[in-house]
């Protein structure tokens, strides 16, 4: 009896270690996903984790687009987000051209704006 209690205690301890290791593996996997590392195994995510992390990934892409990042994927933006981004990019470009600093793409100005803003010297 004493031996079987000890065996049960050892088994329970081992199960806790396994559960902790699996939890730790899952946390590393989620961390890899959140940080955009390629080592994430999406097949190991629960539906709830995958949904929450998809929101994180979408926000990361939106931030990348808003900041003019090269990894921006416009096709993953909603119509509303894409429109808001186009307006922000237009304003940024117009301001850069009008003030003479930053990257100015004169081809994106309307004809009347291009005439009103002196060309670079």
Overview features:
121 residues, mainly alpha, 66% helix
Question: What layout of secondary structure does this protein have?
Answer:
Elements: H1 2-34, H2 47-66, H3 79-99, H4 111-116
Produce a short descriptive summary.
This protein has 121 residues and is an all-alpha fold. The protein has four helices and no strands.
Could you tell me the mean pLDDT?
77
The dominant shape is: elongated
Task: Compute the CA-based radius of gyration.
Answer: 26 Å
Q: What pattern of helices and strands is seen along the backbone?
A: HHHH
| Number of E-type strands | 0
- Backbone structural class: mainly alpha
Helical proportion, percent range: 55-70%
Q: Report how far apart the termini are.
A: 94 Å
Poorly predicted runs of 5 or more residues: 1-22
Task: Supply the number of helical segments.
Answer: 4
Assembly annotation: single chain
Largest sheet: none
Give the amount of beta strand, in percent.
Answer: under 5%
Task: Describe this structure as you would to a colleague.
The structure is a single chain. With 121 residues, this protein is mainly alpha-helical. Helix content is 66%, strand content 0%. It has a domain at 1-36. It has helices at residues 2-34, 47-66, 79-99, 111-116. The N and C termini lie far apart (94 Å).
């Amino acid at each position: 009896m004493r031996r079987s209690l000890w065996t049960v205690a050892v088994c329970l301890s081992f199960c806790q270690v396994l559960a902790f290791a699996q939890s730790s593996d899952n946390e590393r996997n989620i961390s890899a996903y959140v940080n955009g590392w390629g080592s994430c195994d999406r097949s190991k995510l629960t539906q709830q984790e995958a949904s929450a992390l998809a929101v994180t990934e979408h926000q990361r892409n939106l931030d990348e687009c808003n900041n003019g990042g090269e990894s921006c994927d416009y096709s993953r933006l909603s119509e509303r987000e894409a429109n808001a981004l186009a307006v922000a990019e237009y304003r940024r470009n117009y301001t850069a051209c009008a003030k003479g600093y930053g990257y100015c793409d004169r081809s994106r100005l309307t004809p009347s704006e291009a005439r009103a803003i002196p060309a670079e010297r």
